[in-house]
Amino acid sequence: MVGALAAIAIAAWYRAQLPGPIDAQASRGLYGLTLDDADGHAQSLSQWRGQLLVVNFWATWCAPCVSEMPELDRLQREFSSREVAIIGIGVESQARVRQFRDQLGLHMTLLAGGYDSLSVARSFGDEQGVLPYTALLSADGRLLRTHAGALRPGQLRAWLEGAR
Q1: What's the rounded Cα separation, in Å, for the pair 86 and 132?
Q2: pLDDT at position 28
Q3: pLDDT at 19 over 60
Q4: CA-CA distance, 115 to 68, in Å (whole number)?
């Protein structure tokens, strides 16, 4: 009896970790965006359609955001040859995003979404406006995973390896 209850509790916990259903408009809205990158060049998010896409919403003033950036950057370089894109959408100005990128020596794509980009994060389930907020989308735009707050070391790697 105790074993059965434990199995039910574990299954309920696991289901709670998966994102709830989202409207298909959320991914269409994301892929319909064009944002400036750190160098001021307009980047259409539709260029990542067809790839496994990690979108990390962040801010320079958010300590957990800053601390997880080096791992995101490493994983982007490691997984780029596997049709995986990891991008960061900063709720900042283009100048602040560039300064942040240069200060940390990052190579991953960082986009300047300003505060308006929080509505995109909300469409993927970030109802509380938590930063950082990370979403993993399949190559066909389905939401596979989300996480509010800093990712644990190795968490994104496990997501990416599990999604392949």
Answers
A1: 14
A2: 72
A3: no
A4: 20
Per residue in 73-113, pLDDT tens? 999 999 999 999 999 999 999 999 999 999 999 999 999 99
Contact 86, 56 (CB under 8 A): yes
Assigned token pair, 159? 């997501």
Q: Report the 10 Å Cβ neighbour count for 20.
A: 9
Residue 118 CB neighbours (<10 A)? 19
Question: Rounded to two decimals, what is the model's pTM?
Answer: 0.84
Domain 22-163 in CATH: superfamily?
Answer: Glutaredoxin (3.40.30.10)
The distance between the two most distant Cα atoms of the chain, rounded to a whole number of Å, is 61
Say yes or no to pLDDT of 153 above 50.
yes
Residues 6 or more apart whose Cβ sits within 8 Å of residue 13: none
Where do the domains of the chain lie? 22-163
Q: Which residue has the tokens 């993993």?
A: 136
Q: Give dist(CA 107, CA 21) in Å, integer.
A: 32
Q: How many residues does the chain have?
A: 164
Other C-beta atoms lying within 10 Å of the C-beta of residue 46: 13
Reduce the DSSP state of residue 53 to 3 states and report it. Answer: strand
What SS3 state is found at 49?
A: coil
